[in-house]
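Figure caption, in words: inputs first, then the predicted bound structure.
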Amino acid sequence: MSDFYAVIGNPIAHSRSPLIHAAFSRQTGQDMRYEAILAPLDAFAATVSIFRQRGGKGMNVTVPFKLEACRISNRLTERAGAAQAVNTLVFDAGEILGDNTDGAGLMRDITVNRKFSLTAKRVLLMGAGGAARGAMLPLLEHEPSMLTIANRTKQKAYELQQQFSYYGNVVSGDYSDLRGERFDLIINATSASLHGKLPLLPAGIFAMESLAYDMMYGDERTPFLQFAKQQGVARLADGIGMLVEQAAEAFFLWRGIRPETASVIDAMREKFKV
Ligand code: ATR
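Bound structure (2'-monophosphoadenosine-5'-diphosphate present):
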């Protein structure tokens, strides 16, 4: 029987992970199945447990269960511990290993696919929720000259700054503190795009040759990327690349093989016209 895996979330019908992993397994010739599982909001742990009893080997975890996945893990990788969130579970010898591949996926998309080096650059991270937290350590590992966190609720940005300042130069504030600043890379890790909104950024915030990166994606250009384009930014990236790269990293964890991602990113764009 094939090994089997699943993505678990609520809602889950919109998830593109089954398509991405089907493409990876075809490409690498791995004998595996991958399904989408809707967990009741109050029964995440029980749903995982049933999946394990059925012989499942691993899961991807999505909204809103990443914190709970962290709690049910017996062991966490360093990057999952820093993110305090788990997006990949590995079931092995009676143990649950929790990992977080989101940050690695983000960095691979930025540095390999977009060929953007962060070293000695000025980076702005917008947001201080789970998505931003997961990006902190991977970003700092690339040694930007400064990592600025801006968040609507200033206190949450400050807490992230406190937690991660050991790893590099980190400052924090709200959006009004950004007046007069310029950045080489601006990453939108807020959920504002989901509501068609955009945190208020001052004009002139993008440096020459900068990259605007939105972790979100949709059928149309996100409000943040629309703003960046209006500001004259030529390098625009949405979250499709990160989505495929985090999946590739999970696939590697489970199967020990790194799938090729460029063709899968293209196929996702083609299929969903983004
Ligand atoms: P996620 O796990 O996706 O990061 P989250 O933890 O709920 O979700 O965090 C959402 C982030 O988007 C937060 O940084 C939030 O700002 P607050 O901490 O001030 O709530 C940010 N956010 C959501 N809607 C926003 C909006 N309309 N304008 C600015 N920031 C917004």
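Residues 185 and 211 are 5 Å apart (CA to CA).
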